[in-house]
Give the backbone structure.
Amino acid sequence: METIAAQIKQLELKLLHTDMQANPTVIDELLDSTFEEIDNNGQINTRQQVVSWLLNKDNAQQWSLQDFRIKRLSNNTVIAIYRAVKHEKATKTFNAVNSGSIRSSIWQRRGDQWKMVFHQATRSI
């Protein structure tokens, strides 16, 4: 499970840190065609809405994933649970700008590739 957890964490970070305008194929590599999301405002977003966000996100923002863990739901399905903290790169050091949000993502293995099928963010208080 540890190697799967490390692999899924890297995929989560790849989604957040990749410049999708320069590398749009990463979206199809990581997001399943049936992907849906519930954002931290409780809105249900389609795959296309999330793709639009990924293509237009601020690439200067960096994220850290804290307390990352996964639970196996079936042989080919895991849920990742973690706290995502957004950082602003104001200087050479990263400064946390908020307390983050609790995230969960469901990943399914398709052949030898993992794809995210669902994601939910819950704002931390």
Summary: The CA atoms of residues 83 and 102 lie 4 Å apart.
